[in-house]
Amino acid sequence: MKTSFRILAFGMARDILGRPVMELEWNSPLTVGELREELIRQYPELARLKSLAVAVNSEYAQDANLLTAGDEIALIPPVSGG
After folding, report:
1. Tens digits of residue pLDDT in 14-71
2. How many domains does the chain have?
3. Is 39 contained in some domain?
4. Is residue 82 part of a domain?
5. Considering only CA atoms, which of 40, 46, 48, 55 is closest in space to residue 5?
6. Is position 81 within any domain?
């Protein structure tokens, strides 16, 4: 069964994706780690970020977390400044 995920991208992740919001369709259950791997496959520049946090429903998620339909996913690159 195909599931569609809405992904919000911030900062450098938004620049790399070329847009602030994208949709990703997936055929099977998907973990945060699998999502990260797929996004890096599609957008290799993401691998150059020192870290890329993934938040699911406004909470930081671990790679093993399973995504479900309707989850709000956010890509949060490293933040610099002071």
Report:
1. 999 999 999 988 887 899 999 999 999 999 999 999 889 999 999 999 999 999 888 8
2. 1
3. yes
4. no
5. 55
6. no
Q: Is the pLDDT of residue 78 over 90?
A: no
Q: What's the pTM? A: 0.87
Domain containing residue 63: 3-76
Task: Tell me how far CA of residue 42 lies from CA of 35, 38, 47, 81, in angstroms.
Answer: 11, 6, 11, 29
65 part of a folded domain = yes
What is the model's pLDDT at position 53?
Answer: 94
Query: What length does the chain have?
Result: 82
Q: Distance between CA atoms of 29 and 70, rounded to whole angstroms?
A: 13
User: For residue 3, what pLDDT is reported?
Assistant: 84
Which domain CATH number covers 33?
A: 3.10.20.30
| CA 76/CA 67 separation, integer angstroms | 17
Between β-strands 59-60 and 30-31, what pairing exists: parallel, antiparallel or unpaired?
Answer: unpaired
